[in-house]
Amino acid sequence: MEYARSLWCMSNGDDDPADASEGADAADDAEEAGGAGESTDAAAAPTLPDEATEESLNEYLDEIAERLDGADTEADLDDVDALLDDAEEGVAEADLPEPDEDDEDADDPRGDLEDRIAELRDGVEEARGPYAEDVVDAIEAAASTLGDTEWTAAGRDDAADAVVAFVDAAADAVDDGVDADEIDPDTVDTGSADTEAADADAAEETGGDRTDDLVAALDAVAEAVAGAGLDPDDDAETIAALIDAADALEAGLDDAEEWDDLETHEQLRAQGYYDVLGHYKDYPVEWAALKEHEARGNVDMILLALDSLQSDFMERHCLEAFERMGKRGKTEASVEELLGRAEKRDRPSIRILGKMAAEEATETLVEYVSEDSNPQLQKTVFKALGEIGAAEAVQPLANQLDPESDTDDLVRPHAARALGLIGDTRAIDPLAGALAEDESDDVRAAAGWALRQIGTHEALEAVAEYGDEHSFIVSTEAEKAERALDEAAPTA
């Protein structure tokens, strides 16, 4: 309430609120003498009695509403805000009847007044601005959309047109408010719109560079507007014109075509996935194209199909294509894709990483060696590590040969074979121990096979001594080791 009283007093040239009554009398005399409508804005400020009632508070709010309707400047709106502060204080201090708690339809004067104050405050906020900060925020949001969105070729052209149109409009709007040279559309390098004749890699690079230029152009406009010191009152028309231009920019970007706007087959066609086909065949064209890409070694296109065609059918065939390609299908991108799946214990992906001999997968796969609760996963991991030739896996795999471990008897032979594929001589002792002591003939035979793969004289001798073994599969490995030793022996 202090604001309303002080505003009244100052309007009469008196800085002392204690003389408010004298100021009020003078104002009354002035109104009688000069007639209605000749008082200043300050003199017209509403006042609130010390002992406010529901009726007087509503009248006070009515006058504030009128003052809000006539507010032309930010200072006027600041005055309205201050009067609303007084109104809130008056409502809080007023002795108003409380609603009957048992009657849901009972009147609530205090609540109704508080609602009116809240509505008037909303009106003040709606009447404020726009500000230069709003323009900057809109430009920064557009720049973020432009840089973060994956556009089609046509969409990138439309987005560029929207940016150039905005820069044009901004240059026209700022006039003397902003240095127009900073946002001159002729100085903005938006790149060439003709990307159709370029190859895929060049088109992608050009598109990326071009987008960077467009984002830089928007950043230049935002910086110029932020540094111009535009006043919401004095430069209202300039700010409004910039807001309109920013709205048009947003609409233009919304209308520009994104990859996500296209159907999957349209995306694939635009990226040349079907170009390998002379004509569409009766069975799914995606599969027909996939087989052709596999034959040609087009790893990127297989990855494109795997990412785009969200069906179990195509996922299975994409992974099978990589498995058949083996090392031929190994690229940084394919390993990254398969390793991401392997980290989720996807067995087909683990199997493919082995076929690719992807040493990048060793660290992840070694973590799964001891997962005794999942024998099928262990078998796949052991073989993959063997095919990779992962020396780091020798000790973890050797630990699985221990008969006292929790490793399944059906899994331990796979650990032995993996050690044979790796071929590291550190595995000779644990393999020889398994051959000598394990109760499972399958484990012993696998250990014998692994020692033969290592192939050193020591390894072959460790197997050859079991030629008279009662187990056929073990004695067979011993006989092969003996022949290898004979072949390696120098002739007389």
What do you see in this structure?
With about 500 residues, this protein is mostly helical. The protein has 3 domains: about 1-125, no CATH class; about 130-260; about 370-490, Leucine-rich Repeat Variant. About 65% of the residues lie in helices and about 0% in strands. The protein is built from 23 helices and no strands. The radius of gyration is 41 Å and the shape is elongated. The termini are far apart. The relative contact order is 0.05. Mean pLDDT is about 80; it is low at about 1-45 and about 175-205.
Write the layout of secondary structure elements.
Layout: H1 2-11, H2 20-34, H3 54-69, H4 74-93, H5 109-127, H6 132-148, H7 153-174, H8 200-226, H9 236-255, H10 264-270, H11 285-296, H12 299-308, H13 312-325, H14 332-342, H15 347-355, H16 362-366, H17 375-388, H18 394-399, H19 412-422, H20 428-437, H21 441-454, H22 457-464, H23 472-488
Helix pairs in contact: 3-4, 3-5, 4-5, 6-8, 6-9, 7-8, 7-9, 11-12, 11-13, 12-13, 13-15, 14-15, 15-17, 17-19, 19-21, 20-21, 21-22, 21-23, 22-23
Task: Name a few traits of the molecule.
492 residues; mainly alpha; Leucine-rich Repeat Variant; 3 domains; elongated; disordered N terminus; lyase
- The separation of the N and C termini measures 121 Å
Helix content: 55-70%
Total helices: the number is: 23
Average pLDDT, all residues: 81
Provide the structure class.
Answer: mainly alpha
Q: Which spans of ≥5 residues are poorly predicted at pLDDT below 50? A: 1-43, 176-207
N-to-C SSE series?
HHHHHHHHHHHHHHHHHHHHHHH
Number of strands: 0
Overall geometry comes to elongated
Structural domains: how many: 3
